[in-house]
Amino acid sequence: MKLLFGLIGIVLKVGSYACIYLTPFLGVWLASSLAAFSNRSTFLSVLAGVFLFPVLPMLWDLWSSYKRRKLGKSGAQTLTWGDRLTVRTLVINLIAIAGLLAWQPSNSFIALSTRGDWMLDGMQGAAVQPVRQSLFKLAGGLEGLYKSFNKNPFEQYDDGSSAIKPQPQPDRISRNPFQDLPNPNANKRQPDSSNSKPITDKPLPNTNKAKPSTITPVKNEWAWDGQGLHPAIANMPTNVETSIESVAKYIVSKEPDQVLRVKALHDYVADRIAYDAESYFAGKYPPQDAETVFRTRKAVCAGYAKLLEALGKAAGEEIVYVVGDARTQTSDLSGQGHAWNAVKVKGQWNLIDATWDSGYVDRAKGFTKSYRTEYLMPPPEVIGITHFPKDQAWQLRSNPINLGEFLRQPMMRPKFFADGLQLVSPTRSQSDTSTEATISLANPQKRWILASYNSKGSGGSQNCGQAVQGDRVACSLPSAGAYEVKLFTSNVDRGQFNYVGQLEFNKT
Predict the structure, then answer these.
(1) Helices 258-272 and 301-315, interaxial angle, to 10°?
(2) From CA 158, how far away is CA 352, in angstroms rounded?
(3) What string of DSSP letters covers 175-223?
(4) Cβ count within 10 A of residue 253
(5) Average pLDDT for runs of 10 along the chain of length 508
(6) Distances (CA, A) of 157 to 111, 268, 340, 396
(7) DSSP bridge partners of 361
(8) What is the pLDDT of residue 457?
(9) Are β-strands 348-352 and 422-425 bridged in parallel, bridged antiparallel, or unpaired?
(10) For position 185, what pLDDT does the model report?
């Protein structure tokens, strides 16, 4: 028995020593991941780690021994040299890690989740993947810290409707949108008779003066491209818009088909409400309840979602309010607090974002109206690239992803997939390059693709060149730094191009 307890003691001691000496590696990992994410030198982070262990603990011990001799102290110390080195290593590195977390509480999680495997860049294989997954799983331990510093201001408008839990739907297969979405197919929805409004999400001018292509775009079965406002919304008499109930009753009377009725409800909110850009940039929001938004015709995302929820209730449709994070072309990889909707159509839940379908916002110009249907019930995996609900049940996936996986996804919009495109590489939201930023695509529908780049966080952008109809886009980045490369598509080779997504590149 004495031998057994002795063995247990040895095991515990070795285990505790191993955990303590692991702290320097955790500190280096955190510091180097922050450096990789911010396009700084990872070598300096590793060098700093060497200083934290063993250099600084040994210097501390030498200083302590010098002070003892100077004070005339003699005799054996309570702890051995090895124990003293161990304790000092633990103290120094815990202080270093705590300092990094206090300095970058949000970016620490983002950096570890997106670039925590920087030392494995370019490496693949059966031996590498388990290591990569273990690193990302370890990074998930900081998710709570990230959430505590990133409160969603729109949760306050959740009156409990989102407590409804969607039931698992075995007929809905969870796919990877970058690998195995359904192939493009003829659009099964019939366009309505109203005038179509062009999508103008910050289009870039095309400098190519060649003759326009005559390619006819092929649509995905879930895409609504080319369809304008529902006739009930386009032709709604003014005297109908006296109340939420009156508008809902009119829509129900004009549209018997449930799918198109939901489109009409979405179209009303997306078309009639203007985004309150002034309040958004000020970070101070007026009341966002449905009645106030209906009366003022102005709101941020919460107001759009609350009005659509109220219209759905008045129309007898099951529409709920959903909150979470969303990534836009103007946000960082982590995104920001947002609100949208879920709707139950023919027994199956789908997601809607009427805010993002109403137009776009610019700090200088404010809100620009630009009705579209890009976020009207796309596949869950597609909207899940930009929208991450607080309640994972509203991902509507058979295998929900975690926040780290969400952040690692390249920021592609539904239109990217509706155009039949697939991203071959890079497969991550942020990548390193020592030369140019290269994006490889599968482009079976021969869409014209235009790319631009800008320094991360800056305003102006530069075209990467003329539009291409192939499967490769390359941007010659001018110097070392962090860049955002945005993609735009069109079915013709000049004129208006529509924003479809972006990736980040760190040029070393």
Answers:
(1) 140
(2) 16
(3) --TTT-PPPP----SPP-SSPPPPP-SSPPPP---SPPP-PPP---TT-
(4) 10
(5) 69 71 92 95 90 91 88 79 90 94 94 96 90 96 93 90 68 64 42 33 37 33 80 96 98 96 97 96 94 98 98 97 90 88 94 96 89 94 95 92 96 93 94 95 94 88 91 94 95 90 95
(6) 31, 21, 12, 22
(7) 367
(8) 79
(9) unpaired
(10) 39
Q: What is the largest CA-CA distance in the chain?
A: 97
Residue recorded with tokens 């059966």: 126
Q: Is 445 helix (H, G, I), strand (E, B) or coil?
A: coil
The type of residue at 267 is D
Predicted TM-score (pTM) above 0.70: yes
Burial 170-191 (b: 16+ CB within 10 A, else e): eeeeebebbeebeebeebebee
- pLDDT reported for residue 323: 96
The per-residue pLDDT for 172 is 61
DSSP 8-state code for residue 376 = B
Neighbours of 493 (CB within 10 A): 21
pLDDT at 205: 38
Secondary structure element (H or E) that encloses residue 97, with its range = helix 81-103
Cα–Cα dist 203/368, whole Å: 12
pLDDT at position 165 = 79
Looking from the CA of 71 toward its CB, the CA atoms found within 13 Å total 9
Please check whether residue 394 is in contact with residue 400, taking contact to mean a CB–CB distance below 8 angstroms. Answer: no
What is the distance between the alpha carbons of residues 414 and 379, in angstroms, rounded to a whole number? 9
The full set of domain ranges for the chain reads 2-148, 155-507
pLDDT of residue 494: 83
Can you read off the two tokens belonging to residue 82? Answer: 């090895």
Closest by CA position to 42, among listed 118, 113, 96, 111: 118
In one-letter notation, the amino acid at residue 9 is: G
Orientation angle between helical segments 81-103 and 56-70, nearest 10 degrees? 120
Distance CA 147, CA 145 (A): 6
- Closest by Cα among 402, 401, 382, 393 to 168: 393
Which pLDDT value is given to residue 203?
40
- Structure token digits, residue 321: 């309010």
Would you say 344 and 370 are in contact if contact means Cβ atoms under 8 Å apart? no
Size of the chain, expressed as the number of residues it contains: 508
The two tokens of residue 276 are: 């309150």
Q: Quick one: which H or E segment has residue 505?
A: strand 498-507
Spatial separation of the C-alpha atoms in residues 378 and 98, rounded to whole Å: 42
- Take residue 215 and report the two structure tokens written for it: 């390619």
Tell me, what's the pLDDT at 170?
59
Would you call 93 exposed, middle or buried from its count of C-beta atoms within 10 A (0-12, 13-18, 19+)?
Answer: buried
CA distance 370 to 270: 9
Query: Which residue is associated with the tokens 């309505």?
Result: 192
Is residue 311 within 8 A of residue 248, CB to CB? The reply is yes
